[in-house]
TrEMBL record:
Keywords: DNA-binding, Transcription, Transcription regulation. Pfam families: LacI, Peripla_BP_3. It comes from Micromonospora antibiotica. Gene3D superfamilies: 3.40.50.2300, lambda repressor-like DNA-binding domains (1.10.260.40). PROSITE patterns: HTH_LACI_2 (PS50932). InterPro entries: HTH_LacI, LacI/GalR-like_sensor, Lambda_DNA-bd_dom_sf, Peripla_BP_I. This is LacI family DNA-binding transcriptional regulator. GO terms for molecular function: DNA binding.
């Protein structure tokens, strides 16, 4: 740092402020210091800075799977917003969703020195009715029912499902069939409950629900069965991947979408506009979820007031070509 200060013609304190991103440095001076850092190959010593300031500028992320579209997009959003705030993330996958696995991940993150932890808790634990985290840890939870104990951020799963079902009813469909996600998923449960409530509230019959596992293959299997349901004119798939499988099955069974059966998904993945036909779906704002997660974690790190509770990010309907008025309407 002293070498950089001499090369830039500034004090060591100014170099320190530049290296930590302190706002109180004139732009021209900042550029002068950065140029000296680059010329000398200087890299700030994060370990020494952590010992001095008590901050590691690292946020841990505990996650059960990276295979789902939602989790991968959420992780990207968390990493992006953490980076903008000058933080890095340490990823800690947990192979089995158990209380023991979560606590083990917390222990490991503690050894790696993080300032806060974001837990992507998208499924129920196998060995506990609710998960309990160690006291004194800055924690933000995603996609969970733990809002009474922790700061939780999630998209409004129930309202998104309501929008999907209501869209199909408004088009004139008598009822809506549902291909739900796996039973252990919080999101799948909220979407299925909302689907049922909208139909019951409208005085419509509630058909049998089909279960999938978020994959296109599971949607395909359900779609083959739905194609044989003579009264089925509308399907709400729990995510876009399962909707893709439903579309394939209906095509193979020569059921034209949306002439014979309308299909709506959930997520609005980048490829959904390129399905055949382009998929009507519910857009989830993963970038906003990631931003709120990081913002809440930073508020805790800075000892700013953060109350337990759930922050819901709204969803919106994206209408494309896979839904239409039924022929019998």
């Amino acid at each position: 740092m002293a070498d950089v200060a001499r090369a830039a013609g500034v004090s060591a304190q100014t170099v320190s402020r530049v290296s930590t991103g302190h706002p109180g440095v004139v732009a021209s001076t900042r550029q002068q210091v950065l140029a000296a850092m680059q010329q000398l190959g200087y890299r700030p010593n994060s370990a020494a800075r952590a010992l001095k300031n008590g901050e590691f500028r690292t946020i841990g992320v505990i996650i059960f799977t990276l295979s789902t579209t939602g989790n991968s997009r959420l992780l990207e959003a968390i990493a992006t917003h953490a980076s903008r705030a000058g933080y890095v993330i340490t990823l800690m996958p947990v192979a089995t969703p158990t209380q023991h696995g979560v606590l083990g991940a917390f222990t490991r993150l503690g050894e790696l020195a993080v300032d806060a932890v974001i837990v992507v808790m998208e499924v129920h634990l196998l060995d506990a009715a609710m998960f309990v985290l160690p006291p004194g840890v800055h924690v933000v939870v995603v996609d969970s029912d733990a809002g009474d104990r922790y700061s939780v951020v999630d998209t409004d799963q129930a309202d998104g499902a309501r929008q999907a079902v209501q869209h199909l009813l408004d088009l004139g469909h008598h009822t809506v069939w549902h291909v739900a996600g796996p039973p252990e998923s919080f999101a799948a449960g909220r979407r299925a409950t909302a689907w049922r409530c909208v139909l019951e509230g409208a005085g419509r019959p509630v058909p049998s629900m089909y279960r999938g596992d978020w994959s296109a293959e599971s949607g395909y299997r359900a779609g083959l069965l739905l194609a044989d349901e003579a009264s089925c004119t509308a399907v709400f798939a729990g995510n876009d991947q399962m909707a893709l499988g439903v579309l394939r099955a209906l095509h193979e069974k020569q059921r034209i979408v949306p002439r014979d059966i309308s299909v709506i998904g959930f997520d609005d993945i980048p490829d959904s506009a390129s399905f055949i036909p382009p998929l009507t779906t519910i857009h989830q704002d993963f970038a906003e979820v990631g931003r709120r997660c990081v913002e809440t974690a930073l508020r805790q790190i800075r000892n700013q007031p953060v109350e337990p509770g759930t922050s819901l990010v709204p969803n919106r309907l994206v209408t494309r070509a896979s839904t239409a008025t039924p022929r019998t309407a």
